[in-house]
Design a protein that fits this description.
Layout: H1 24-39, H2 42-49, H3 54-89, H4 97-111, H5 113-116, E1 134-139, H6 144-148, E2 153-158, E3 167-171, H7 177-188, E4 194-197, E5 203-208, H8 212-218, E6 220-222, E7 234-235, E8 238-240, H9 255-294, H10 298-313, H11 318-328, H12 333-340
Antiparallel strand pairs: 1-5, 1-8, 2-3, 2-6, 4-5, 6-7
Helix pairs in contact: 3-4, 3-9
């Protein structure tokens, strides 16, 4: 980022300087920031700015959101466990409106997982600090037998309907699981569909949770008449990976239903506690990155800060201008020189 010379108009030697009166409150606001800045040491200013890293701060915020969501869910699960255990111990099989209400409340909280966790916690409670929670799914007809046997065939996939660029992958009999994964992953990557092996010779696909409804409703394939029909695209049938917690299956009517619900609540508690451990480890790693960044050299920090600031300042968004303008409105040549002269 280049800073051009500051244009400061000065009166000629034989002309008296004319100054425009300022309102006292405006003057105090303009002068307060430079005065406060000059009062501090250059080291303290650098220390504060050194922590400014939009990407890292977003990841920290997302991890904290995910942790708060997990804490909320665990508290609700612990309450359900206590209520169900008490009812079973007292042999109360009749429905309980209060318990049914708590089950509905939990289901509502769980349905808001994506938004409440900042987009970093997927349906299987796997955490991604980058906010790229994904939905895993299978495609019917692409199992081990179909992929590793039969004749050679070229499959063309479409995501988004007619007019979209076709994504092509060729398969032939005898391909290993690793080879199949590589071919499908490379072919579907432009649509942000990633592919991994399921450990049993089959393929597991995944897409960003926000894109899952569109992919589910539009993913189509055209084959050569062997594994899929030739000549036209046909929509594939997908099976989404089940969520780690499925409160829609829980109930409070009858002893057997209560017992099954209690067991699922206990299993959910175990998964939630494991998710907390993962998030806490992510927070610890992010904390180490903050520490390492603070210990980096002044030159490295300055270059990174300038690049980040320039990138954000170039974004034509009103909020960016409104955040930057107050910091620049009162800058003059004399103040810049004074700041640069600080020891």
């Amino acid at each position: 980022m280049r800073i051009g010379p500051l244009n400061v108009d000065r009166p000629a030697a034989d002309e008296p300087a004319v100054t425009e009166p300022r309102r006292p409150e405006a003057a105090s606001r303009v002068d307060a920031a430079p005065a406060k800045l000059l009062a501090g040491s250059r080291g303290s200013v650098r220390s504060g700015l050194n922590q400014w890293d939009p990407g890292l701060n977003q990841q920290l915020s997302r991890a904290q959101q995910a942790l708060a969501f997990v804490d909320q869910i665990e508290s609700r699960l612990q309450g359900l466990k206590s209520d169900l255990s008490a009812r079973l111990a007292d042999d109360r099989s009749a429905g309980d409106p209060a318990l049914a209400g708590k089950l509905r409340d939990f289901a509502d909280s769980w349905s808001k997982r994506q938004a409440t966790s900042g987009g970093g916690l997927d349906g299987q409670l796997a955490f991604d600090a980058a906010g790229s929670a994904r939905q895993s799914f299978k495609i019917r007809g692409l199992d081990r037998n179909a992929l590793q046997s039969g004749d050679k065939e070229t499959l063309a996939f479409s995501v988004g309907g007619i007019g979209q660029r076709l994504l092509v992958v060729s398969i032939e009999p005898g391909l290993s699981e690793d080879a199949l994964v590589r071919r499908f992953d490379q072919a579907l990557a432009p649509a942000d569909i990633r592919v991994t092996g399921d450990g049993q010779g089959g393929l597991t696909f995944s897409v960003a949770e926000s894109a899952w409804p569109a992919v589910r409703d539009s993913l189509s394939v055209k084959g050569a008449g062997k594994r899929f029909p030739s000549g036209q695209l046909v929509q594939v049938k997908t099976d989404a990976a089940p969520a780690a917690i499925r409160p829609g299956n829980w109930g409070s009517e009858g002893t057997e239903v209560q017992r099954q619900t209690l067991q699922q609540v206990i299993n959910a508690l175990s998964k939630v506690r494991h998710a907390r451990e993962v998030i806490n480890r992510a927070l610890a790693e992010l904390g180490r990155r903050v520490t390492d960044r603070a210990a980096s050299s002044d030159q490295d920090w300055a270059l990174a800060f300038a690049a980040d600031f320039e990138s954000i300042a170039l974004q034509p968004v009103y909020q960016i201008y409104s955040a930057i303008a107050p910091a620049l409105v009162s800058i003059s040549r004399d103040r810049v020189v004074s700041l640069l002269a600080l020891d």
